[in-house]
Amino acid sequence: MKIAIEKNARILAAFAIACTLVVGITFELTKDRIAQQEQKELLSTLHAIVPDDIHDNDMSQRCVLVTDELLGGSEQQTAYLATQNEQPVAAAITAIAPNGYSGKIYLIAAFNIDGSVSGVRVLKHNETPGLGDKIEERKSDWIYSFNGKTLEDINSSRWAVAKDGGMFDQFTGATITPRAIVKAVGATSSFFEQNKDALFSASNDCGVENESE
């Protein structure tokens, strides 16, 4: 009996080692492809929320790493900067809506230098399919409702969902999700207004430009 147990233990250990090796090898073989796909998705998102015709730099290669409670907590976020003739024109900032219905909602919000919203996209979430997932561009055009809006005051009663007396629609049967997004975009807008000069004067934290500095 003892011999059988030891034999099974050795088999299980060998199987675990083999699985670990397979996972490790698979990761090594696919990590470059995954990185390329993530970069492709990033570029697509940046092009969508900051029009190419208003800047002449590669935003993915000009960024600043930031941490601020206005961006949803203590996690490090990235501000991608757009310039025209080296003059600031817009910034796209990643942020978190910490109070979604099903947890954190990761997003990116872009703002023109005058403070108006250029575009917003949700990057990752766990909201309820058919209800909260209408924050996705492919499920609904609701996310476009931020375009052109300007947050004059973080405490403005108009920067809220309609149920709270604001100007943004909520979804039928789902108010928590859009409320979380509206609050997060407003907070990110406030962060941009408070820090835009510092962002555009900061050292580059990503891309080839950083290597030459």
Walkthrough of the structure:
This protein has 213 residues and is of the alpha+beta class. The protein is built from three helices and five strands, in the order H-E-E-E-E-E-H-H. The chain has helices at residues 2-49, 176-201, 207-211, and strands at residues 63-66, 77-84, 87-100, 103-112, 117-124. The protein has a five-stranded antiparallel beta sheet. The longest helix has 48 residues, at 2-49. It starts with a helix and ends with a helix. The model is unreliable at 209-213 (pLDDT under 50).
Computed CA radius of gyration, to the nearest angstrom: 22 Å
Number of helical elements: 3
Strand order of the largest sheet: 1-2-3-4-5
Q: Main β-sheet: number of strands, strand sense, barrel status? A: 5 strands, antiparallel
Average pLDDT reading: 86
Tell me what portion of residues adopts beta-strand conformation: 15-25%
Counted beta strands: 5
Unreliable stretches (pLDDT < 50, length at least 5) are 209-213
Order of helices and strands: HEEEEEHH
Question: Helicity, in percent?
Answer: 25-40%
Decide which structural class fits the backbone.
alpha+beta
What is the terminal-to-terminal distance? 68 Å
Shape: globular
